[in-house]
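This part of the workshop introduces the protein records we will be handling. The question running through the whole workshop is how a given chain folds. To make this concrete, we reproduce a full record directly below:
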Amino acid sequence: MGKIWLIGMMGSGKSTVAPLVGSLLGWDALDTDVEIGRARRRPIPEWFPGDVAEFRAAERTVTLETARDPGDLVVACGGGVVLDPESVAAMRGSGLVVWLDAPVPVLEARIGAGEGRPLLGGDASTALDTILGARLDLYRTAAHAVVSAVVAPGIVAEAVVAAWRNWS
């Protein structure tokens, strides 16, 4: 039993890759942003910029509850989960944390102008560069493994499964 926690920047493919990894392993997948939105009946974009602290508290709650769940699960985390040391400790203590790493040009190509991503403001490239710069060391520290997310999602999923098998 275990968890695979996918971390990384918005646009790195966490939400796409999680169910693919789940399918390869026969596990369920969970997207923390979807879970927060469902549980709180409030879409993620509505939390930002005014209720960031409230969102981070909800994210911590979902992360800690998920870490305590005894089942096998692939978890697509929100990009900012690494900002909370308690969440990082819970993830690392309950499974494998995999950083899906992609450079800013790849992230920008995937998310475009950033519709529905309020942290990006009007200049996605500059915002992505700033956010990644602020989180880079946090991703490195949180991750047990790093997988390049610049290739097709199926290849990324296979690399995550390989990291799991090497780790477990």
In short: The beta strands are 3-7, 28-31, 73-76, 95-101, 145-148. The chain has one domain: 3-167. The first helix runs from residue 14 to 25.
